[in-house]
Each structure stands twice: as C-alpha cells, then as structure tokens.
Design goal:
The complex is a heterodimer of chains A (270) and B (288). Chain A has 270 residues and is an all-alpha fold. Chain A has twelve helices and no strands. A two-stranded antiparallel sheet of chain B has the order 1-2. Classes of the chains: A mainly alpha (270), B mainly alpha (288).
Amino acid sequence: MRLADRLARPVFVAIVALVLAFVTLPSLVVVVVAFGDKSIMMFPPDAWSLRWFERALTYPDFRKGMVNGLYISAWASLLAVAVGTMGAYAIDRFRFRGSALLESLLLSPLVIPHFTLGVGLLILASGLGLSRGYAVVVLCHLILVVPFVMRSVYVSLKNIDPMLERAAASLGARPLTVFLRIHLPLLAPGLAGGWLFAFILSFNEFTATLFVTNNTTQTLPVAMYNYVREYADPTMAALSALLIGITALFLVVANRFLGLDRILSIGSHR
Amino acid sequence: MAIDGRRPTLLPWFIAPAALVAMLLVASLAMLFQYSFRAHLPGTLDVGGFTLDNFQDLGKWLYLRVFIDSLVISAWTAGLSLLLGYPLALALVRCRSPWLKAAILIAVIIPMFTGDIVRTYSWLIVLGTRGFINGSLLGLGVIDAPIPLLFTTTAVVVALVQYSLPVIVVILSAAISHIDSDYEKAAASLGAGPLSVLWNVTLPLSMPGILSGTVTIFAWTMSAFATPQLVGGGKVNMVSNMVYHLGFASFNFPFAAVLSMVSLLLIMMVLALLGLWLRRLERRGFAG
C-alpha cells in the first residue's frame, strides 16, 4: 500500500472531526455564554449565574412570542395536514385536469425565497384591506409547510400495498370508503411525522414571518430578532441554549423511536 | 391510480382546499408582479400609476452590486459546503457503529431544527469582539486587541456554510448510500487503494448528489436573510436585506417587489439548469 493510502484513514477521521467541531462549536459556545453573570455577553464568562435563564423565561415579548408562535403554528400545521393530505392524495391517486399544475404550485414554496413570499403576501393583504392579523401569518405559514406534509404523504402512499385498495374496491368499497378505512389508518404514522415537521418549521420560520407580523402578532423568532438588535446581554444566549437543549432531546427521542437515518433515507445500501 | 378509472364524486372536495392555497400563493406573486410596475410615492404606502421606472433603477450600481455580492456569497457557500459536507456524508454512510452514526447525524442536523435566529445569534457570540474567537486568542496572548471579525463577507460565508451543512449532508448521504458498494469492493479487489477508490469510483458515482446538493445550497443561499442581516450587520447586504430595507425603511414596496421578482427568476433559472444537467447525467447512465 502506498503511503498516501495508509495515511488516508487517519486524515479522513481528522477531517470529519474538524468539520463536526465546526458544526457544533456555535451551539456549545452559546450554552457556555448563557451561564455567564455579566450583563454583557463575553467568552469565557468570568462569573456564573442562572439569572439570564430567568429573564429569558419571564421577558414579556418572549412569552407573548411563544404563545403567538404556538397558536399560529398549531393552526398552520393542522390546516397543512388537512389540506396537504387531501391534495396529495387526490393528485397521487386520481387523474384530473390541472393536477400537475396544482402539484407544482403547492410544492413551489420549497424554492421560492421566503422574503419574496413575505413581501407578496404583505402587498396582497394590504391590497385587500386586511390588517396584519393572525390570519395572514397562519396563511403564510400554511403555504410554506404544505409541501412538507405532501412529501410525507407521497412517501407513505408509496409504501402502501396497492393490493389492499384493489381488494377493497373489488369487494364493492367506494373510493371514499377506501380512503377512510384503508388509506387514512395506514397513512396515520406518516402524517404524524409530517405534522410534527410542519409544526417545528412553522414555529421556527423567521424571514417570511418578519414581513407579515406586527408588534401584536410577532412570533418567538421575530421577538428574538428584535431583542438582539436592542440588547447585548446573554438573555438570548440563555433562550438559545434552552431551544438547543429541547431540540437535541427531541432528536435523540425521534432517533430512538423512529430512526432518523430511515426518515432521511440515508441508511447504507445493503 | 384509481381502480377501473372510477372518479369519486367527492374528488372536488379533496382538491378545493389545496386549490385555494395554491391560488393564495399565485395571488401573492401576482400582486408582487403588479407592484413592480407601479410608481413609488415617497413617504406613503400607496402606489401611483403604471411605470417602467423601477426596472431602470435595477441598472444602478448600488443594486447591481447587491446582486453580484449575493451571487458571490452563494457560490462560495455552495462550494465550501460541498467541500466540508462530503467527508461528513461519507462518514455518516460508511460508519459501522450505529451509536456513532446517530451521534454524528444529530450533531449535524440540530442547527436545522433550531431555526435561523438561534443559529445566526450563535455566530454573533463566536465572532463578536468579546466572543469565542477573540476571547480565546486574547486569553492565549496571541493578540493584544480584539480583531474585527463580524460584519465581513467572510463571516457571513462562514455562518452560511454552517447553516447549509445539514442540508447538503442529507442530500449527499442519500446519494452516497445509493451507490452499490459492490463497485467499490470490485475496485479494491483489483488493487485500487482507498484514495483511488474514492476518486475513481465513489466520487463519480455520487455526481448527481454532488450536483443537486451544490446547486440547492446555491439557490437556498440566494434567499438567505437572517444570517446576512445579523452577521453582515448592514455592511454585507444580500438581495433579501435590500428588500427588507426598501420595504420597511423607505416604504418603497414597488422596488422591493422588483428585487424580489428578479431574485425569484434567478433562482428558478439556476434550478432549471440543474434539472437539465441532471437529465444529461441520467442519460449517460447515472442513476438519479
């Protein structure tokens, strides 16, 4: 074996470790800074305290943003599951005029810049004389997360044995019965995943939300953005640390029960 | 497919909600299109009559510059993401210990789920005057005074690369895991070393993933907002930041609409080129 080949493995491991360090470094630094005591964020902190966590949890704008976010994301993700499931089911199972157009329109928010959509919706809302209320934000998030629900419906539908549908139909079940009694129960786990993904994406969406919210309807990311622009204390670090911790916990649980590599389809080929 | 082609009578009820959402999207884009031809009335939110003046402003150096900067930042981000993401994706797919694999995967995708603001804010702490890098260098005595790292194009690119890595790693790992490992084993049994296998077998076979991953990141970065807004701090501007500024500082929504339309068009063109390119690769025998 040539020298280069013998060195390949250790060098590869070193590169992977460095890239991993690069990816995780910011999160780790935030967690450390969150426990600092000084009212100006600094690294390394010279004294330790939990007071920024207290402030993060009691700061009115964050609480309001959290409540707004939960409300908006609950509506947007539930509507997205209903709309996306029925739409994707109809597009996948039945031929109708304009189905290809409908599908590409519904999936297009995956590539449309969020600020483009935000400006467009803002102009549309003001053109219709609507105020910047919750409904506009919910509709904005609905448009943005429907593609993710549709994708999970497509993936789940692909895994359903077509014989089940044929057997039911040959026994006289009507299409609606087939949908309600065969497909919907089999789709349920995939839909739960799609809903969760939609909810998280909606809760964290920032760019389009910034355009369509105002002081009353602002969500947590928007409140956090406004905070960063006004204050330099570690409150944001504490809140970020909390969010990173919750996310990590959630991913570990999701991996344990669902298998992340299976969800993301990156299991090794056997 | 519907069995024996029967169309359920309830089908319209399934389609109607989805059609409404699609129409809302089309209406927003149509309004954007319409606004881009309207005159800006300074100091008001109202717009004047139809005009083509907005498109003339597009040729001004100030705005051309923003587009050029956005393209350059996106190109750097896409290239660096590929360079850093490929080894990670390879490690993820080839890693034999399920425990290690899960750990790598979770570490990589956490930033994807924490949202723009947390990710971007973290970089403010890493790169700030009293942040991680300056703090460590000062502590080690390498520098005497903090070096300005924030509000530079490099800082924006570095933060954007970290932001893009989860996405490109997922795309690349999917591509790499679809390579039949028999090809690699065959090459190795014929005497190819690991580097030669990587260079002559694995890399070429993951070409579709490399292409679509890089182009996806490029298009995605073209629409980045939070990172250039906070890490760039007004000194580094991408199209999105200019749109926000035009909208909420100057209330010039007609011109904001023009910039939004143009960047949407640019992204569509890039993705259409990718589609053509992938189809050519497929014709040459690469599985997609």
